[in-house]
UniProtKB/TrEMBL annotation:
Protein EC: 1.8.1.14
Similarity annotation: Belongs to the class-III pyridine nucleotide-disulfide oxidoreductase family.
Protein name: CoA-disulfide reductase
Membrane keyword on record: no
Domain Pyridine nucleotide-disulphide oxidoreductase dimerisation intervals: 329-425
Organism this protein belongs to: Candidatus Salinicoccus stercoripullorum
Record GO terms (molecular function): CoA-disulfide reductase (NADPH) activity
Keyword Methyltransferase carried by entry: no
Length: 447
């Protein structure tokens, strides 16, 4: 019987195991997971803190016991230390028993994920945490409850940092936000995100920009300007690094940043070794350029591809991704897709920008929505899009993603037929208007 070893669980590894078992009932599957939990909704972690996910256990997607019912062996607290791709072996450390052993595979799926970054000043600080898994969530809540904490210092302005600001406010805590620059939420254009600071201050958040913590003594944190602030709880959300150190010497190719190089089959540079999730380098669907995207959709889709590839269906391939994403920040929704802002500069392009109401303007409930796209002068393709508003953002970004995926150009947006009724849209939606504006700009280039 063929044996497939999977390194890591959560959205990548656990989904790959489930898909592989569904397609291939005759293969033996073993998951080695470094941590305590095999599969959970990590995107929902902040919302348990804020109370929108009232039951923490609802975040658990699978357990070793539920996997065993599907004839999938799960070993938690088991860390893969080395991969010998020539001998098709992995070296595993059982942290609970403090022993090492080897295991052989016919196929290997790598889903090691990312390791959260932290600051040197926060090392060995008992009240400093990250929020990366269920264990982190449990530790943060236990610290709050055990010490009667009603104040928190948040560091970082990515997904996790901003979502935690919102949810700690909803929890009723005093929040201080510290960020080392004035640029809040880098995925979004600065001039489209000028509401972030205003909204934080409206919600009572103490905002400290161009600042960093350099020392923590007791419950006091010292900033780089010498100021001391009260910090009985500190949570850092400053990004992740790929967990791929264990692959050194394996023969598996990594890019310069340590991400595992993969192609449209999910296979790495080594036969019978596949990879997915936050630790891989993949590619954009619409340009073919390389990218790394720590989002769940790509992991779930690649899990399906890899399961089919291992099971002999080589027709199923990964067509790339757009990095379509959305987040909520209090009343605002912020969505982007496509290339990052600095990547767009590599293409000869123009920008189309439009603001209007999300529905018929005479409706009292209508609110502004702002759409910006970056268009290739070469072929009219949409390279990047950003949408901001307080209602209807998800619909617009999803339409754009589907439109691009099916080969639609920016000018083709004029032909998008929306479901119109005053409570939902305008006869000419914001995306139609983007299309018309694109057509006019193209005429200027032809002159």
């Amino acid at each position: 019987m063929k044996h497939c070893i999977i390194v890591g669980g959560v959205a990548g590894g656990a989904t790959a195991a489930a898909q592989l078992r569904r397609i291939n009932p005759g293969i033996r599957i073993t998951i080695y997971e470094k941590g305590r939990d095999i599969s959970f909704g990590n995107c929902g972690l902040p919302y348990n803190i804020g109370g929108e996910v009232s039951d923490r256990d609802k975040l658990i997607a699978a357990t070793p016991e539920s996997m065993a019912e599907r004839d999938i062996t799960v070993k938690t607290h088991h860390e893969v230390l080395r991969v010998d791709s020539g001998a098709k072996k992995v070296t595993v450390k059982d942290s609970s028993g403090d022993r090492e052993f080897e295991d052989e595979y016919d196929y290997l799926i790598l889903s090691p994920g990312g390791a959260p970054k932290t600051l040197p000043a926060l090392l060995n600080v008992p009240q400093a945490f990250v929020l990366h898994n269920l264990g982190d969530l449990d530790d943060i809540k236990a610290h709050i409850d055990g010490h009667g904490v009603d104040k928190v210092v948040l560091i970082g302005a990515g997904y996790i940092g901003l979502e935690l600001i919102e949810n700690f406010v909803r929890r009723g805590m005093d929040v201080t936000f510290i960020h080392r620059s004035e640029e809040v939420y880098r995925p979004l254009e600065d001039d489209m995100g000028d509401f972030f600071i205003e909204e934080m201050e409206r919600q009572g958040v103490d905002v400290r920009l161009n600042a960093e913590i350099v020392e923590v003594t007791g419950n006091a944190a010292t900033l780089d300007n010498g100021e001391e602030i009260d910090a009985p709880l500190i949570v850092a959300g400053i990004g992740i690094l790929p967990r791929t150190e264990f692959l050194k010497g394996s023969g598996i190719k990594l890019n310069d940043s340590g991400f595992i190089c993969t192609g449209d089959t999910g296979r790495t540079s080594v036969d019978c070794v596949y990879a997915l999730g936050d630790a891989i380098e993949t590619f954009y669907q619409h340009t073919g350029g390389k990218t790394t995207v720590a989002l769940a959709w790509g992991a779930h889709r690649m899990a399906y591809v890899i399961a089919n590839q291992i099971s002999g269906n080589e027709d199923v391939v990964f067509e790339g991704l757009l990095g379509t994403n959305i987040m909520r920040f209090f009343d605002y929704d912020i969505a982007t897709l496509g290339l990052e802002q600095h990547e767009v500069l590599e293409y000869d392009h123009f920008i189309v920008d439009h603001r209007q109401r999300n529905k018929a303007g005479y409706m009292d409930s209508s609110v502004p929505i702002h759409v910006r796209i970056y268009v290739s002068k070469t072929d009219g393709k949409i390279l990047r899009a950003a949408v901001v508003g307080t209602e209807g953002v998800d619909k617009r970004i999803d339409i754009l993603a589907a439109h691009i995926r099916l080969g639609g150009t920016a000018a083709d947006l004029a032909n998008i037929e929306v479901a119109y009724s005053p409570p939902y849209s305008s006869p000419k939606s914001v995306l139609n208007m983007i299309g018309y504006k694109t057509i006019e700009k193209l005429k200027q280039f032809d002159e």
